[in-house]
Design goal:
The protein has 596 residues and is α+β, with helices and mostly antiparallel strands. The chain is 57% helix and 13% strand.
C-alpha cells in the first residue's frame, strides 16, 4: 500500500513541477482539451471549422512553447523566458490568422504536421547542441517517456471506459459522448502532460535533476534485447532483400516506377530511428549496424530517387512525390555526414530533419508551390497542344485523344482539390462552386478515367447531370430544398432541415466504411425514412457506356414514402469514383421534394 501511495505522491509532485516548468505548454494543452470538448458536444451555434482552426493553432503553440522551454534550459536564458513566452503566444496568433483557412484542407494539415515535426526535432536536438550533452541519452529519455505516457494513457482510458460502460448497463443511461470526453481529457491533456513530467532538465547541474537524469538514462534490458537482437537482425534481412532487388534492376535494366519510393522511405526512416536508439549500445550487433547502415542506405536511396524521377518525368510533381524526393535527399546527406564525420553524433539526424522539414514549407521551394507550378505547366501544355487554351481562355473540345482526356481529368481534379485551379486566370469562375458537375461545361467532355490496359473494359468513374432544359414539376409536394452529399464528411452529419405541419425534420447523410451513402430524414433524432444511394449509383455504372453529359429527370430520380412522409430525390449532378472499391468517392447536388 505504501508503494502505491509513494507512486501517487511522486506522480502528483512531478505533475506540479511540470506545470511550473512548462506553463505555456500546459495552457495550450488545456485550451485544446476545452476546444475538443466543444467539438464533441457539437453545439449547433458553433462554427466547427473555426474550432478546428483553434485546434491547429493550439497544437502549434504547444510544440513551440515546449521548444522555447528547452532552448531556455540549454542556454540558461531564464531571464528572458517571459518575453519568449509572449512571443510564443503572438506567433501562435499569427499562425491562426495566416496559416489556417476557413475550411480545413490537406494543405493546412500538411503544414501543421511538418511544422510540428520540425519543432519536435528542434527540442529533441537542443539539449545536445554543440555536444553539450549525450544525444543518445536525450533520445532514450524521450522514447521512454513517450512510451510510458502513452501506455498509461491507454490503460487509464480502457479502465474509465469500462467504468462508464458498467454504469450505463447496470445503473442508468450515460451519454455516449462520455467516452469521447474521457479520451479527450486523457489523450489530449493528461498523456502529453505526463510525458513532459518524465523528461529531466538535461542541461541542469542540480542534484535533484541529476538523479532524475540517471533514472531516465537507464537502458531497459527488454529494449536492449528488442533493438539489438530482434529489430537490427530484421532490418538487416530486409536490407538484403532490397540489395538483391537492386542487383536485379541493374541486370534487367527495368526500373520500378511506383512501389520502391514509399518502401525505401519507410526503410530509411526506420533505419535512422534504430540508429539513434542504438547509439549508446556497445554490443557487436549494434556497432556493426551503426557502421554499415549509412553505406548500404546510399545506393538504395539513389535507386529510389531514380524511380521517383521516372514518375515525376511522366506525371509531374505532387506533394507526396515532393516529400519522397526531399526525404531521399535528406537520407543521403545524413548518411554522408555519418560516414565522413569524425564524431558520428546521431543528433545531426534530427537537426537535419528539422532543417529539411522547414525548407519544405518555405516558398518558393515549398511542397505546395513546387507542386502547383509543376501540375499547372503540365495542364496548360496539354491544353495548348489541343488548341483548348487561346488568348487566356478555355476553348471547349470533345475530339481530344483518350490519353489527353485522362490527363486533363486527373490533373484538373488534383488542382481543384488542392485549391490551385481557382488561381488560374483561364478557369471560368462561374463553375468554381460546382466544379465536378460542370466539368463538361469547362472542357467540353465528361471526366475520363478509361485509360488502362487494352481490352480492360471495367469502368471506375461516372458523371451525370440533369438536363436543365427540362421543366421540374413540383406539384404534389409541399417542400423543395437543395442539399449536397459528399462521402468524405463525418460518418453521420446533418445536411438540411425543413418544417412541415409544425414538425421540424432534419436531413442526415450517413456513410459506411466503404463510402456508401444513405440519406435519412429524422424527427427529434427518430428515423422517419431513409433512402440508400447505393442501388441508384450501381444503376449509373450499369449504364456507364451511355452518354452521361445530360440525363432526363426519370433517370435521376429516387422516390420513397411511408405513412408519415413522401420524399423524392432529384439528382442535379453527381460524380462517383470507385477505382478503390473500399474507398469510393461520391459527390452530388440533389433537389429534395417532401410531402406528408
Amino acid at each position: 500500500m505504501s508503494r502505491i501511495k509513494n507512486f501517487m505522491n511522486n506522480m502528483v509532485y512531478n505533475l506540479k513541477a511540470t506545470t511550473a516548468r512548462f506553463p505555456v505548454t500546459i495552457l495550450f494543452l488545456a485550451s485544446l482539451s476545452a476546444v475538443m470538448y466543444l467539438i464533441i458536444e457539437d453545439y449547433s451555434t458553433l462554427d466547427i471549422d473555426l474550432l478546428s482552426r483553434y485546434m491547429f493553432a493550439g497544437i502549434f503553440g504547444a510544440f513551440l512553447a515546449t521548444a522555447v522551454r528547452f532552448m531556455a534550459e540549454r542556454f540558461e536564458n531564464y531571464k528572458n523566458l517571459l518575453l519568449l513566452y509572449v512571443l510564443t503566444i503572438l506567433l501562435t496568433a499569427a499562425y491562426f490568422y495566416f496559416m489556417t483557412d476557413d475550411k480545413v484542407n490537406s494543405k493546412m494539415l500538411i503544414h501543421l504536421l511538418v511544422i510540428s515535426f520540425a519543432l519536435f526535432a528542434g527540442y529533441l536536438y537542443l539539449p545536445s547542441s554543440k555536444n553539450a550533452f549525450n544525444f543518445g541519452n536525450v533520445a532514450l529519455a524521450h522514447f521512454k517517456s513517450a512510451f510510458t505516457a502513452i501506455l498509461y494513457g491507454i490503460v487509464l482510458y480502457i479502465g474509465i471506459a469500462a467504468i462508464i460502460g458498467a454504469v450505463d448497463i447496470l445503473l442508468y443511461d450515460v451519454d455516449y459522448k462520455s467516452y469521447a470526453h474521457a479520451a479527450n481529457i486523457i489523450f489530449i491533456f493528461f498523456t502529453p502532460l505526463y510525458y513532459l513530467s518524465l523528461l529531466p532538465n538535461f542541461n541542469s547541474r542540480d542534484a535533484y535533476d541529476d538523479a532524475n537524469k540517471e533514472i531516465s538514462f537507464m537502458y531497459p534490458k527488454f529494449l536492449d534485447i528488442l533493438v539489438s537482437y530482434i529489430t537490427i537482425p530484421l532490418i538487416t534481412a530486409f536490407t538484403a532483400v532490397l540489395i538483391i532487388y537492386f542487383i536485379k534492376i541493374l541486370v534487367t535494366g527495368v526500373w520500378p516506377v511506383g512501389q520502391v519510393g514509399p518502401m525505401v522511405l519507410g526503410y530509411s526512416a526506420t533505419g535512422y530511428f534504430i540508429y539513434i536508439l542504438s547509439s549508446n549500445l556497445n554490443n557487436k550487433f549494434s556497432a556493426f549496424y551503426r557502421k554499415f547502415f549509412p553505406f548500404v542506405l546510399i545506393p538504395l536511396v539513389v535507386m529510389q530517387m531514380v524511380s521517383s524521377y521516372i514518375r515525376i518525368d511522366a506525371y509531374g510533381i505532387t506533394e507526396s512525390r515532393y516529400y519522397v524526393v526531399l526525404f531521399g535527399i535528406f537520407s543521403i546527406v545524413c548518411a554522408l555526414v555519418l560516414i565522413l564525420g569524425k564524431k558520428k553524433n546521431p543528433n545531426i539526424i534530427v537537426l537535419l530533419s528539422a532543417i529539411f522539414a522547414l525548407i519544405s514549407i518555405i516558398p518558393p521551394v515549398d511542397a505546395f508551390t513546387v507542386s502547383k507550378n509543376s501540375q499547372e505547366r503540365r495542364l496548360t501544355e496539354i491544353l495548348y497542344r489541343n488548341n483548348m487554351l487561346i488568348d487566356g481562355e478555355i476553348v471547349k473540345k470533345n475530339d481530344v485523344s483518350a490519353d489527353d482526356k485522362y490527363e486533363i481529368t486527373n490533373i484538373s481534379n488534383y488542382m481543384h482539390e488542392m485549391g490551385y485551379l481557382d488561381d488560374m486566370d483561364w478557369f471560368p469562375e462561374q463553375y468554381a462552386d460546382n466544379y465536378y458537375g460542370n466539368f463538361r461545361n469547362i472542357y467540353g467532355f465528361d471526366q475520363y478515367y478509361d485509360r488502362g490496359t487494352p481490352g480492360h473494359e471495367e469502368i471506375y468513374y461516372v458523371n451525370a447531370s440533369l438536363d436543365e432544359n427540362e421543366k421540374i414539376n413540383i406539384e404534389d409536394y409541399d417542400i423543395l430544398l437543395k442539399i449536397y452529399i459528399h462521402n468524405k464528411r463525418d460518418p453521420e452529419e446533418d445536411i438540411g432541415e425543413f418544417t412541415l405541419k409544425g414538425n421540424t425534420y432534419k436531413i442526415r447523410q450517413m456513410s459506411d466504411e466503404k463510402g456508401n451513402i444513405t440519406i435519412a430524414v429524422t424527427d427529434n433524432s427518430d428515423l422517419v425514412i431513409e433512402i440508400p444511394m447505393k442501388e441508384f449509383i450501381e444503376g449509373l455504372f450499369e449504364k456507364a457506356n451511355e452518354h452521361k453529359g445530360l440525363m432526363n429527370q426519370e433517370s435521376l430520380t429516387i422516390e420513397k414514402q411511408n405513412d408519415e412522409l413522401k420524399v423524392k430525390l432529384l439528382v442535379n449532378d453527381i460524380s462517383v469514383d470507385k477505382y478503390n472499391p473500399d474507398d469510393a468517392y461520391i459527390y452530388a447536388n440533389i433537389f429534395v421534394f417532401v410531402a406528408d
